[in-house]
Write a structure and sequence with these properties.
- The chain is built from four helices and 29 strands.
- With about 450 residues, the chain is mainly β.
- Strands 1, 3, 4, 6, 11, 12, 13, 15 and 16 form a nine-stranded mixed β-sheet that branches. Strands 17, 19, 20, 22, 25, 26, 27 and 29 form an eight-stranded antiparallel β-sheet that branches.
- A hairpin with a 2-residue loop joins strand 11 and strand 12.
- The termini are far apart.
- The N terminus is likely disordered.
């Protein structure tokens, strides 16, 4: 067990100030309350100072708390070798299904390089940089080379704020992960012999988990908001927002020239299809992108209500099936598997469950599903007819459009009657109205620069 030293409530006759009830996370001479994840770098505790030492040919290593933390205020001192890179994980996790247990989550960067982004927020193992410091010279200059530095981190709700040596560094609004462990990183050095045996040190780690509004500090920085916005790395790698989070620009009804006047609303920066009794495309109807797409990567956050059914279709041609029902295209199924009867139906077993290729290919049953009412992330990759479905960062199926296996599946499905189903060179992206309330946000697309083989 970690040694918890709680500073009691003390009132001074002179200043009547209440002492902050910090909980210390580092004991005097042990690593009780912590465990090592990832690589094989070593950690030791000398008189209350945790020392991490690099090792060769091993991935990033993390000394992580046994305790999981949601909302908190955290402070810590650190000193890092000037040739190293490190970080402090917050709200981080290691899950068997995600990249074989790779540590992932928010990281408060420790960066002694000329870039000087110490105190910035990096998303380890996922989205990379969320709040870099290229526009914050005061924070960049606050880092002290080869000396002890002090971090303050506030993680309250969807807001994360950091300070380095008292200078505001990062201000991020992002709700990807609500809780997780705290971790001290020794960065991988690969085969670099010059960095072998280099050290990072931490001390005086302490945390608050109650009455946080009482102790929270204001930050003068303009927050970086990730909802319906591209991250720093997404902008660099060619992603574009497919929905702006505010208007219906770029979308229309699948069987209309304009956006539906009913059945869909924009509320709290979410694009919501309303409940209308569960019928397929009988209320507002499906909506599609104005533009067509050939090769692409698509990401969409979606949130289900109990028993809901919807879908994300791609390679849609709205000129096909002008009659009742939904427009025709390949579909990433969105479904409450536990409550909706479709989960037990389909031309192929399990092919109508969440993240499946609807009526054709069942998604991996070990897929990571967030509970109903929480946000899940769908990711569809289609490059040179190779298609992958991902759910919450995990690949759950793949197939090749137009292959013999694919055409056989189509011939055995409800789509057999549609000529050339699923093999169009290009088509629209569709969000389905299936009569149940489902919310969407963070809809973004990347069109890679690839040549057809």
């Amino acid at each position: 067990m970690v040694t918890l030293l709680v500073t009691g409530t003390i009132y001074s006759c002179k200043d009547d100030k209440q002492e902050i009830p910090w909980i210390n996370l580092i004991s005097e001479n042990s690593l009780d309350g912590w465990n090592i994840k990832g690589g094989e770098a070593t950690y030791q505790n000398k008189n209350g100072i945790i020392i991490g030492t690099t090792a060769a040919n091993t991935p990033n290593t993390f000394l992580t708390t046994n305790e999981m933390y949601g909302d908190f205020i955290f402070e810590i001192d650190f000193k890092v070798d000037s040739t190293m890179n490190s970080g402090i994980q917050i709200r981080s996790n290691s899950l068997p299904y995600y990249q074989n247990g790779r540590v992932h989550g928010y990281q408060v960067e420790i960066d002694p390089s000329k870039r000087a982004w110490s105190g910035g927020i990096y998303d380890e193992g996922r989205r990379k940089w969320l709040n870099p410091l290229q526009d914050n010279p005061a924070a960049q200059n606050a880092f002290k080379q080869n000396e002890w530095n002090h971090y303050r981190v506030e993680a309250i709700g969807d807001t994360i704020k950091t300070w380095i040596n008292g200078v505001p560094a990062a201000y991020l609004i992002d709700d990807k992960t609500a809780s997780g462990f705290i971790g001290l990183q020794v960065h991988s050095i690969g085969k670099n012999k010059e960095k072998l045996g280099k050290q990072v040190m931490w001390k005086d780690a302490k945390i608050l988990t109650e009455n946080l509004t009482k102790y929270s500090k204001k930050s003068p920085l303009e927050p970086i908001v990730t909802k319906n916005n591209l991250t720093f790395n997404e902008k660099k790698s060619g992603w574009e927002m497919l929905w702006d989070g505010k208007t219906t620009k770029g979308w229309r009804g699948a069987k209309l020239d304009t956006f539906p006047e009913k059945g869909w609303i924009i509320e709290n920066d979410e694009l919501i299809v309303l409940a209308s009794g569960g019928a397929e495309s009988a209320a507002g109807g499906d909506i599609v992108t104005i533009n067509d797409y050939s090769d692409f990567e698509l990401q969409v956050d979606f949130k289900l209500t109990p028993g809901a059914n919807s879908g994300i279709k791609y390679y849609v041609d709205t000129e096909i099936n002008k009659g009742p029902g939904s427009s025709i295209g390949l579909e990433y199924q969105i479904l409450d598997d536990a409550l909706h009867p479709d989960a037990k139906l389909g031309s192929h077993e399990g092919s109508r469950t969440l993240a499946s290729l609807y009526d054709l290919i069942k998604a991996n049953p070990n897929k990571p599903i967030k509970p109903i009412g929480e946000w899940n992330t769908a990711h569809i990759k289609s490059i040179n007819n190779n298609v992958e479905h991902w759910l919450n960062g995990v690949k759950v199926l793949e197939y090749k459009r137009g292959s013999d296996d694919f055409l056989k599946l189509v011939s055995e499905s409800k789509y057999a009657k549609w000529p050339n189903f699923g093999v169009l060179d290009k088509g629209q992206i569709l969000l389905q109205d299936h009569g149940d309330k489902v919310s969407f946000r963070n809809i973004k697309i990347r069109v890679p620069n690839v040549k057809k083989k």
